[in-house]
Each structure stands twice: as structure tokens, then as C-alpha cells.
Amino acid sequence: MKPDTLVIVNPASGGGRALRAEAAVASLLGARGCQATFLHSKGADDIREQAVRAASDGFRTVVALGGDGAFHHLVEGIRGTDAVAGFFPAGNGNDIARALGIPCDPIAAADAFVRGQPRAVDLVRVRFGDGRVAHYLGAGGMGLDAEAAHLANTRFRAWPGVTRYLAGAFTIFFREPLWDVAVEMDEASWSGRALFVAVANATSYGSGVRIAPRAEMDDGLLDVVIVGDVGLQRLLEAIPIVLTTGDLRGFPEVTRYRCRRVSLRADRAARVHGDGEALGEAPAEFEILPGAIRVMAGRKGTTDERR
């Protein structure tokens, strides 16, 4: 009988954590009667290509054993097909797994997978000024957060957990001036100097930075968070909050909106990211696609491990 599940393993995820977990995950799936084929990826493009082939070949479920980036590229590959996405998180951040109610241990996630049911969740579509289109599942944005994500994946890649993102954020904070941004939403607009603008479908990014604690992945809405002209002292005060509750109501520099579409422009080159991956540069238009992807995930109400 042909296996109905393909597991794409990213050997680089989590400094080799995915590779080390592969045998135990395969053993658990086999013991639970889940017939699965395992393949290793050679990079982001390869993950997408393998996911596309798996959906075309009739695999019912396509699973990423890796980090948020691996799952991001898998979702791009199966988007628009009947395949269901699965995620055995083995990365450094695992923000998407937490938002979906998936255990952050890959073996525990595999156990939950065989007992789970598909759940429809929203996807974010991003259109750029040059005509390119990208998608992401969790959280993204433009400005300091995108630049910090880039540095976290490059210069500070070897740093543990959230320290990679914080090191990137402070590097950009001291190196780059604020952006003059224009934000256009469904029935609202905002313009001014900003540190960054986050566009979230999930509660956190950057290995646990809770930028949008009220975000839900199946409500058909984007959570837009604009961080305006904030000084170093206020930034230092905010860090413990975004690493715990994410409740920034005491910060007038932070403005929040909920909408279905948002466009972002900046006065100079500004990266745009999603799920920690570089997607392009502003100007960019974001749109929520309700229920656009099915994921083997936890029940609603167990999502994002609210603390």
C-alpha cells in the first residue's frame, strides 16, 4: 500500500535537531500505523518542489520536520491543492507551532499528528510593487522586525533562541533611522515615523516575541501593529512585556488595527518578511485568505499557548 504521508526533513533545522529526531519520529509513526515516506531537503526551493510533487503524486498529508522556515516553504508548495500540511517542529523559534497548538517537541508533535484532525486556517498573501506574490502563515511585517529577522538568519544565526532576533533588532535600532511609512487599511490609515509595522496572523515571531497576542489564525483578519517613534529606554521597557504577555496597552507609541487588507509604503528601501523569511521590499499589499490551508493542528482554544 502506498504511504499517504510524506515527511520532508530539513537536516539544517535547529542545528541538526530535525535530523536527530528523524528515527524516533519514524518509529512512532510506524508504531501508530501511519505509513510515511521520509525525504531530506537541500534548501528552501527544494522543500517547495518536494511539496509540490507530493501533492501532485497524491500524498494526503505533507509534513515538515524542521523549523518555521521549512513549514513556510512546505505551505507554499501545497497551497491550492487538496493536501493537508503537517508540522513536526524542530527549529529554534517554533512560533507557528505554538500558534497552531502543535507541541514544540517533534516526537510529541508526531504523536499529536496521528490523533489529530485537519483544521482550516488563514493564509496571508503579499503582493509587491514588481508584481511578485508571496504567502506566509504566521507573522511578518516591514522595518526593524524584517531587518532583525534577516540578521537573525545570517550574522547571528548561531546565537540561541530569541537572542538572535534581539541582537538583530538592537543592531538595526542603533544603525538605521526610523522609516517614514504610510499604512492604508480597510477603512483606516496611518502615516508617520515608525520603527516597524507588523502584519500578523499569529501571536508571535522571532522565537517568542508576542507582537500580536490577540491574533487568531482562523478569524479572517490581520492584526496590524505599528510601533512608532520609540526611544531606547521605552524599547528596553517593552522587551520583557513582549516576551511574556505582549500587552503593550501602556505604550502610546504602539497602535493596533484589525483588518482584511493593508498596504505598506516607506520613504526608503525596507525589507518585508513573513514567518522569518525574506519576502521582498516595500511597497507591499497584504491580504488575508480565510481558510486557505488545512493543517493537522490542535483544537481551537489550545492555540498559541497563551501565558
Overall radius of gyration = 19 Å
- CATH topology of the largest domain: the name is Tumour Suppressor Smad4
Biggest sheet architecture:
6 strands, antiparallel
Shape: globular
Question: Total helix count?
Answer: 8
Number of domain modules: 2
Taking all residues together, what is the mean pLDDT? 93
Unreliable runs: 301-307
Query: How much helical structure, as a percent, in the residues?
Result: 25-40%
Across the major sheet, the strand order is 6-5-16-13-8-9
Distance between the termini: 44 Å
Estimate what percentage of residues fall within beta strands. 25-35%
Number of strands: 16
CATH-derived architecture of the largest domain: Sandwich
CATH class of the largest domain: Mainly Beta
Question: Structural class given helices, strands, pairing?
Answer: alpha+beta
Give me the secondary-structure topology.
Layout: E1 5-9, H1 17-31, E2 36-40, H2 44-56, E3 61-66, H3 68-78, E4 84-89, H4 95-100, H5 106-115, E5 117-128, E6 133-136, E7 139-143, H6 144-152, H7 161-175, E8 179-185, E9 189-194, E10 196-200, E11 222-227, H8 232-242, E12 254-259, E13 261-266, E14 271-274, E15 277-281, E16 284-297
Parallel strand pairs: 1-2, 1-3, 3-4
Antiparallel strand pairs: 5-6, 5-16, 7-10, 7-14, 8-9, 8-13, 10-11, 11-12, 13-16, 14-15
Helix pairs in contact: 1-5, 2-3, 6-7
